Amino acid sequence: MTPETEKYIRDWLEIAEHDLVSAQRLIEIEPYILDTACFHCQQSVEKNLKAFLVANGIEPERTHNISYLLVECGKFDGVFDSIDEKRLDTFAVVIRYPHSAELPTIDEARELFELAKSIKGIVLDRIGKVMKLPIVESKPSMNSGSEKLLSKKVKSDNPLLSKKKAGESLLPKNRVRNSKGKRL
Asked: What pTM, to 2 d.p., does this model score?
């Protein structure tokens, strides 16, 4: 695998992680923004599946269709054939328009978040075997009603963290603000 391909995979994984963190925060902090949280769960799953395809030598199609991506990933690993994607496809596009789909409940949003975490874990495990690299293992958790940064347990020599130090927030520094809303 070329260094360019490895970087491309890491880029997919990084933006998938940003979506997962976004979903987590939208579910944890009141007022809940559940449609957008579910959108980010869908996006995280989509990007993780596309990273898996790239790691297996396939340039993914431009699609938001999770069902299709699971079938494509299943061609390389049967574990993807057994995943029930729930209503994830609904949250890619349809939910983004008024009166187009039923809004999710908090329980459904939490269920989709857990599904996104599970799929991420499967993908990271499988990509780690293909790339022969240590993979970041993040542990987002639902902390009902309170804001909590995504905590990470990583080794400082992890090549997926080339631009970030172990334990730092996943969010870009230019997005971090102080309590008065000013950029740090």
From this structure: 0.71
